[in-house]
C-alpha cells in the first residue's frame, strides 16, 4: 500500500479515509488516479453506505454506479441482513474493505482486474455461513468467501483448529484470487505450465482425493523445507495459491514500508543498499528478498516489543523462494507486456 496525504492539509491519511481527521475535508479513493482525493465534486460509489466503500467514480462514469471493487461482488447477503451493527453487515464490510486492498494491489502490479461476464473475468460471492452452508473457494473466476471469516473470534478459532500461524480475510482473498490468476498466468502458457509442474508438481492429480488425504493425514513431515504453509502441501493448485498470496503479502508490505520511508539497518546490513528498495517488475526476486528478510526481522522485533506474536511467522527455504520467484517472473512478464495503470 502507498502512504497517502490529505489534499487539504497534507496530513497522512489511510487508504480507507472518508474524512481527514486533522482538517475535516471529506475524502475518498479515486481508482482512476490511484490517489486519496477530496470527494467534493465527485460521485461516490453507490455502495458507499452498504459496503462502507470510500471509492469514487471517475469523472464521466455512470452516476449511481458502483466502483470497480464493488462491481466485482456478484452475490452478497440481502441488504436487510447488512444493517449497521449486525454481525453479517460488519463481516460484509470487513470483507469489502479487504477486497479494495486486494484490487488496489492487483492494479498496482499491472494484473488484469476484469469483472466476470458469465464466462471470463473475476467475481466474488460473499456469503454468510450463518445463513447457509458456504465453502470458501474458487471456480472458473468466481471466488466464494465465507463472511464468518470476517468475525475475529470465528477466524481465530479456525486458525487454532487448523494449526495455522496466519489467517486473515485479506489472506483468503489473495489466496482465492491466486487460483484465478493461475488460469491467467500459467494455464494458457505451455512454457509456464512446464515450469509450473517442475516446481509445484502435476496439478492434474485428483483434487478431491488430495484434499481428503490432507485433512485426514495432515501435512508431510519436513514440509517447511518445500512449502510456504502446511496447506500448500495439499495439492499443486493450493501450493500455487499459497505462493501467490505470499508473494502479494511481500510486495504489499514492502511497498508500505518504502512509502513511509522505513529504513531497516542494523548489524550486518548495508544502509546504502537498504535505502533503495526493489519495487519494479524487472527487479530480481533475490534483490526483493534482500529487502524483505531484514524488514521481517525488524517487524517481528517491533511486535515482540509490544507483547504480540510475530507479524511474519514464516520461514522461506530455497525451494519456497524458487516458487515465489516463479510467481514474480510471471507477474512481471504480464506487467511488462501491458501498459501500466495510472499513475
Ligand atoms: Zn486534512
Ligand atoms: Zn465501491
Ligand atoms: Zn485454495
Sequence-ordered SSE layout with sheet pairings:
Elements: E1 4-5, E2 12-13, E3 27-30, E4 35-38, H1 68-71, E5 73-75, H2 87-109, E6 123-127, E7 137-139, E8 142-146, H3 152-161, H4 169-185, H5 190-200, H6 207-217, H7 236-259, H8 271-274, H9 285-305, H10 318-336
Parallel strand pairs: 5-6, 6-8
Antiparallel strand pairs: 1-2, 3-4, 7-8
Word description of this protein:
It contains 10 helices and 8 strands. The chain has 343 residues and is of the alpha/beta class. It folds into 3 domains: 1-64, no CATH class; 72-174, no CATH class; 186-343, no CATH class. The radius of gyration is 20 Å and the shape is globular. It binds zinc ion (3 copies). The site of one zinc ion has 8 residues, from loops.
Biggest β-sheet: count, sense, barrel?
4 strands, mixed
Count up the helices.
Answer: 10
SSE ordering: EEEEHEHEEEHHHHHHHH
Strands, total number? 8
Distance between the termini: 14 Å
Helix content: 40-55%
Mean pLDDT: 92
Q: Which residues form runs of ≥5 with pLDDT under 50?
A: 339-343
The structural domain count equals 3
Shape: globular
Assembly form of the protein: single chain
Strand residues, percent: 5-15%
Radius of gyration equals: 20 Å
The strands making up the biggest β-sheet line up spatially as 5-6-8-7
Q: What molecules are bound to this protein?
A: zinc ion
